[in-house]
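User: I'm writing a tutorial on reading structure tokens. Could you give me a worked example: one chain, its sequence, then its tokens, then a sentence or two explaining what the tokens reveal?
Assistant: Sure. Here is the example chain.
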Amino acid sequence: MKTTGVEHVACPLCGADRPDVLFQAPVWAYNIGRYAYDSWPVGRCPTCGLTYLPDRMDAEARDALYAFVHAGDQEFVQGWFLDSADLNRPTWQRLLRVLAQHRPAGRLLDFGCGPGDFLDAARQRGYDVEGFEVSGVFLERCRARGLAVTDDLPGLLARAGGAFDCITSFDVIEHHPDPLQMLRDLRALIKDDGVLMISTHDIGNPFARLYGPRWRHLNPIGHLTFFTRETLTLMLERAGFAVVRRGGHHTIDGAPAAEARNWLSGLMRVVLLRGLLLLTYKPLAERIPALQRWQIRLGRRVLNHQKLALRLGDQVVINDDMVLLARPA
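And here are its predicted structure tokens:
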């Protein structure tokens, strides 16, 4: 079913209108013909520098998207979030090491918790965890795992304002129709001495600039705002936070030596190895189906062709996602 609703918005950071249009961002192949446009304008605010979609799906279209009823959406959720959950465990442990340097225990809210994998990892580390999530598919999965989750933001604000020692939010703010209000809500939920850890895509990354309109995160179905470290810092400050640390999502760690190792391994694994696989393995596997039927176990993780192909994508990148930690100002 085609969903045609479109709304025009001013800059989510400063409120200025008439952004400079940078390029048109195409939808993913399975979304062609589903929404009002098959490519959407991406603009940059000339006043504050924020990049965003000035014309975007309206609220009704976004609600339909996050119901995940389309076969393509279901396949993406299954492959990226559920089947590959084991591959994300090292990332969650690394982010928890960073968080523990600022707040090693306490009450933690994961805002936009998805299927609950990070919540489960934080619970095992000793945090008292709770999640907020708008997708019914993910809510059911979290509750089946015994996790406390809600989709009632007004109710959460009323009963838990100023109650959380830690708030985490991973790859959520770019989906939110009002990211500044989202951060203000998080400020209302966190203690005055709490810590916020937030991640999103970094459109200021060299690889994002290299790929331009082909950059992998320019998915205008769902991704509404695209931050640099500077514009996210500015938005956090306007919401009442002060940034205390910035890092790359694939390299930030609990110690400088560990972070240096992550950088070196990232260059080898994410850049050189990925480039080699994209140039050799991926085209061969498309021509030789037998290459798609392997599976190996790496500790608690299982890797097969489907997971590898999904994670590889079609671009060589490193740290085009960022993590910022902030405290109430």
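What the tokens reveal: Residues 12 and 178 are 6 Å apart (CA to CA). The chain has a mean pLDDT of 94.
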